[in-house]
Specification:
By secondary structure, the protein is an alpha/beta fold. The chain has 5 helices and 5 strands; from the N terminus they run E-H-E-H-E-H-E-H-E-H. The relative contact order is 0.18. 5-hydroxymethyluridine-2'-deoxy-5'-monophosphate binds next to helix 2 and helix 3.
């Protein structure tokens, strides 16, 4: 299974430790095409070559079977990826931590109207078990 992980880069890297836990867990279920998003050495500057980044990531998005996004730290790039994923009819799972004190964009929470696009509130300690539950469910469908 190809998995596309979305997380904030230029939107801010404060959640990188949780991105690492998510990617490590996702690697039990398939190939994470965007493993670099969780890299501790990738700064808020991001990678070089914006057009190449965009074109590579869109190709990976098209190749993916499921998109998992950590959406607590707002990111234009993640929002764009999610919109493109919806347009491609992809399966999307968004993870949000209410304990951050932030309120998730209505354009993300409000898009969760069917089982293809799900938003899950969670706490940091349950991140692995939430992913286990999700992948168990999609394996049965
Ligand atoms: O260097 C990059 N590499 C990259 O793959 N991205 C993609 C993957 C992330 O899920 C998303 C982050 O967007 P942003 O940088 O706007 O927070 O965009 C974004 C950047 C920088 O914008």
């Amino acid at each position: 299974m190809n998995i596309y992980f979305c997380g904030s880069i230029r939107g801010g890297r404060q959640d990188v430790n949780i991105y690492q836990r998510i990617v490590k867990k996702l690697q039990q279920y398939g190939t994470v095409l965007t493993e670099h998003v969780s890299s501790g050495s990738l700064s808020e500057k991001g990678e070089d070559g914006d057009q190449a980044i965009h074109d590579r990531d869109m190709e990976w998005l098209m190749m993916s079977d499921v998109i998992v996004a950590e959406v607590t730290q707002p990111s234009l790039g993640v929002g764009y990826e999610l919109g493109r994923a919806v347009a491609l009819n992809k399966r999307v799972f968004c993870l949000f931590r209410p304990s951050s004190g932030k309120v998730l964009s209505a354009m993300i929470r409000g898009a969760s109207t069917n089982s293809l696009f799900q938003v899950q509130d969670y706490t940091e300690d349950e991140v692995e078990s939430i992913l286990e539950k999700y992948f168990d469910t999609i394996a049965k469908n």
